[in-house]
């Protein structure tokens, strides 16, 4: 049996430099979040500030205020001085984690959160990718960088999805634990749930139900039953915000965001998003019914997860590392050079176009905090996602055909 080879190799010194740059990015972002004046910059509200503020309200016993957009906006402005507003729509049990982080100053809190989640993410990707770790990380690099810069939870979510896949590969019922933990972002767990149901993993579903029920029960005990009404109210308000185009659509990679940013009415954009979600789930069902090799099924499942929700942000695409950790061996064996190049470009467009658009937007408007009116760029991430899904699915179908042809060739009699 020949040793598996990676898509490409880098010199050890180059790898160490990349690792150092990643560490510098984390430290730089921690300083910027803690006190940007140290770096000669002005304050700009990012996602982790909002995480920390929600944790503060949780510690004060005022979590319900975080779910009321007007009161949370007022609190954000009072604490940070920023006019920007980021709503809070995470389920109540997630606030238990935020409360623990809010016990620390915001800079240290960020450093702990990103270091831990990045460590978990890298450990899971290494377990899944093996010798393909480096190309897998490079293909998902923009999403990882975005997540580190804004302090979001994309690395944590990708680690949970990757851990679910690891348990599936081990044929372990414990996959249900990670499916249950995905209740933090349930819209990213729909394809995982479909796969679990289609494979009749009853014990895994029971594990998922038990962990979800425990999380919801603890949150209800900690915050009171009324917190769920406040949470659902924020979800309704968030949907209205999305319909009005009030979110930064250029940071999203969904079909809805793409069409809406190009001026399509919300009704048409939602209809197209529904079609995208159904197509993604149908693709998962198809490859499962056809009996594809399990790593290929899981790769399709993770890619399909990017097609479900209209809220698919660039930091959510850290999960692309999970998908490519699973399918990279087939890319090495079956992909052509131009296909590999196009897959890399599509991945970077999907997860990095929002980062580029943000930089250009700030440059045009005079930077974060500028009084000059900002221009919202269009969302191009959806094009990257659609190209990725098409190219990778075709590649995996070719790999399936190649795997089926080999036994037949071996069984053919010599002439």
Can you describe what's shown?
By secondary structure, this protein is mostly helical. The chain has a domain at 114-235 and 249-367 and 376-400. It is built from 19 helices and no strands. The protein has helices at residues 12-34, 47-60, 63-66, 69-80, 94-101, 106-129, 133-139, 141-150, 154-169, 175-181, 190-198, 202-223, 226-244, 255-261, 266-289, 294-305, 320-334, 337-365, 381-411. α7 (133-139) crosses α17 (320-334), α8 (141-150) packs parallel to α18 and α9 (154-169) packs across α17 (320-334). The longest helix is centred in the C-terminal third of the chain and has 31 residues, at 381-411. Mean pLDDT is 90; it is low at 408-415.
In short:
The chain is mostly helical and 415 residues long. Helix content is 71%, strand content 0%.
Cα(first) to Cα(last) distance is 26 Å
Per DSSP, the total helix count is 19
Q: Report strand %.
A: under 5%
Helical content stands at: over 70%
User: For the report, how would you describe the main beta sheet?
Assistant: none
